[in-house]
Amino acid sequence: MKINRRSLILIAACLPIAAHAHGPTRQKITLTAEVAAPPSEVWGVVGDFQDMSWHPAVYSSTGAGGNEIDATRLLVLGEEGGPTIDEILYKYDAEKMSYSYRITEVSVDVLPVTNYSSHITVTATEGGGSLVEWRGAFYRGYPNNDPPPELNDEAAIAAVTAVYQAGLDALVARFGS
Amino acid sequence: MRLLPALVAKRRFVVSILTSFVAAQAVAEDVAFVTNQNGHTLSIVNLADNSEQQSIAVPGAPAGVAVDPMGDYVVTVSADSKTIRKFDPVTGALQQSIQLDGGPIGVAVHPDGDRLYVSDWFNSRLWVLGAAGLNLQAEWPTGTAPAGVAVSADGRFVASADKEANQASIFDAHTGEALHRIGVGARPFGITFGPMGRIFTANVGSNSVSVIDPEAGALVATIPVGERPYAIAFANGRGFVTNQYADTVSVFDVDDLKVIATISVGEYPEGIDATTDETRVVVANWFSNTLSVIDTHKLTVVSEIAVGDGPRAFGTFIRNVGD
């Protein structure tokens, strides 16, 4: 089939920006917190993908598939009817106390990121407590060149950092430091 | 300039003779040039003793990288500052730089060493730059969001992985004529020419590798691999595919195109390339800030090397400094 360049360009111009389109530079952050409780106790709280009630921003957490690969959950933030985040589990290792999940659907008004993936790991500290490590990898909310300030790389890093910090602070408050 | 192809042929011949006799020493001379996108540096890594020799500041979030087959330079592409830079591969000295508009991301060098092809993520085109002066020679239209770009070993074809168009574009490397646009898996990112001159794309959206015959302009096969495949390298009759979300490398046989092994590497493996003697492949682990070195016979990781923050190494990043 002969390619008609003009019609290709017209088709391309009419396509909506796909949700998986992203900016040029993926960002990553790692936040950690030490808590006094032993790893098994901390894992007992954060290790269930179906229950994120330990995070103060989460109003409700409902899903399917338990802690199996491809399990899903819907987080409602703040209050009933609040903004939502859809997530899917893609790695889970109870022995290593670690799991990884991705956001499948979120508005950039709620969290200004795309192509977001995250990992939570609990390890033992020398003093008998636990180290909780929360990592994220993501692109900024704006997929094209010259992002507005609320959707640029810095905004994405700030937003995810705030989410992780709030969660870790809650764990420190719960388990002591 | 007419002499160049003859020189290249001669050099290749000498190298192949050398590597066949002293394979262990050939690998001892290999060097990896690793773009660290979050750290804004280029790590120059000696693959003989597996250590970072030098770290060079490369502002603007470098991702794409390509080594000149003639050994005269290494090119980096900084995505954020839209800057192409040429470095001396031995001293690490900056030779030249140019700023482009749009969204430069991937880069490949023609085997002659005299032209560069840079993908424009935002404007559906390849830039063709002269290597000597980084001067713009041509622009070739691709599908939406071209990422990876590659040149065939014989220098005839240039191909791009057009991510949002789910296709590969194939051009005549000399005339720029668009020869074929071929539908592949979902959202191809990395693209590599492999054995028999075939093109392989890593399709992040469909967890597969597409195999293309560029002569016929036809899709030959599709290989299921791990979660979110990113880039591909070839060594020892095998293809090696980094799977970003699985933290693994899928290994397939290049003849029957079946996966024969899956190797655990660091977190978020991205760029991948083979040593010149094909005994090793080297993987850049974006989240772990390391390289994993894989033995291509045993199919195991034989060493880990610390590099800068956020290594992408998106392109051909290993060259032999002994030739």
Description:
The complex is a heterodimer of chains A (177) and B (323). By secondary structure, chain A is α+β, with helices and mostly antiparallel strands. Chain A has a single domain (18-175), classed as START domain (Alpha-D-Glucose-1,6-Bisphosphate, Chain A, domain 4, 2-Layer Sandwich). Chain A has three helices and seven strands. Chain A has helices spanning 5-14, 39-46, 153-175; strands at 27-35, 58-64, 72-77, 84-93, 98-105, 113-124, 130-140. In chain A, a hairpin with a 6-residue loop joins strand 3 and strand 4 (84-93). Chain B is mainly beta and 323 residues long. Chain B has one domain: YVTN repeat-like/Quinoprotein amine dehydrogenase (Methylamine Dehydrogenase, Chain H), CATH 2.130.10. Chain B has two helices and 29 strands. Chain B has helices spanning 4-21, 23-28; strands at residues 30-36, 41-46, 51-57, 62-67, 74-78, 83-87, 94-99, 104-109, 115-120, 125-130, 136-141, 146-151, 157-162, 167-172, 178-183, 188-193, 199-203, 208-213, 218-224, 229-235, 238-243, 248-253, 259-264, 269-274, 280-285, 290-295, 300-306, 314-316, 318-320. Chain B has a five-stranded mixed beta sheet with strand order 7-6-5-4-28, with no helix packed on it. In chain B, a hairpin with a 5-residue loop joins strand 12 and strand 13. The longest helix of chain B has 18 residues, at 4-21. Chain B is globular and about 45 Å long. Residues 1-28 of chain B have low confidence and may be disordered. At the A-B interface, loops of A face loops of B.
List the helices and strands and how they pair.
The complex is a heterodimer of chains A (177) and B (323).
Chain A lengths: L4 H10 L12 E9 L3 H8 L11 E7 L7 E6 L6 E10 L4 E8 L7 E12 L5 E11 L12 H23 L2
Antiparallel strand pairs in A: 1-7, 2-3, 3-4, 4-5, 5-6, 6-7
Chain B lengths: L3 H18 L1 H6 L1 E7 L4 E6 L4 E7 L4 E6 L6 E5 L4 E5 L6 E6 L4 E6 L5 E6 L4 E6 L5 E6 L4 E6 L5 E6 L4 E6 L5 E6 L4 E6 L5 E5 L4 E6 L4 E7 L4 E7 L2 E6 L4 E6 L5 E6 L4 E6 L5 E6 L4 E6 L4 E7 L7 E3 L1 E3 L3
Parallel strand pairs in B: 4-28
Antiparallel strand pairs in B: 1-2, 1-29, 2-3, 4-5, 5-6, 6-7, 8-9, 9-10, 10-11, 12-13, 13-14, 14-15, 16-17, 17-18, 18-19, 20-21, 21-22, 22-23, 24-25, 25-26, 26-27
